[in-house]
Amino acid sequence: MNLQHLTDKTLLNDTKNLVSKELELTTKILHHLKEIQKRRLFSELRYPSLFAYCIGELGYSEGSAQRRIVASRMLEDIPEIEAKIEGGILSLTNISQANQFFREQSIKTPLEKVVILQQIENLSKDECERKLLQISGNEKQARESKKRISFEKTRVVMIFSTKTMEEIDTVKGLLHKQLDTDELFYLMAKTTAERLVKKKFKVG
Fold first, then answer.
1. Rounded to two decimals, what is the model's pTM?
2. What is the CA radius of gyration of the chain?
3. 162-204: per-residue pLDDT in tens?
């Protein structure tokens, strides 16, 4: 599709309208999936579940299928989220995270769920995860570790504070070249080592 003939204003307006239609279409898909589940139509096509149908028949990835199924079920319990999905206020990713949170915290009533959902509106995936952890008052248990996986490589699990992650993201944003995690940390470690050597031995 060649869009070079569009003016800047038209291109921006068209894109915004398409996104709006896309979100509206998403809720329609959720309603269709909900009805297919009720009628168990996937079994007529020899699929054992709605999840398998979404992957095999509709071509969704496992993650995309799961998010849509979760949202379709939540839409049935909490109809008011439909407008928020269409408005881009609640993403399917955040709804999926919230659903996991509801299970972990044994939150069952629609009213309780609505209160939580209101707190994750307009949040990014990372912001949503942080908000849900804040609400729960719990910290996910994790341990730092490292394990040699080849002659030249070591798998490392590290725990960073929000402040550190923000600085890492800043560094990524300032780099002209996109680096993978290994390259980024090598560059940071090398730069720090060079500065420390100069400071310790009064070089240069």
1. 0.69
2. 23
3. 888 888 888 888 887 778 888 888 888 888 998 888 887 776 5
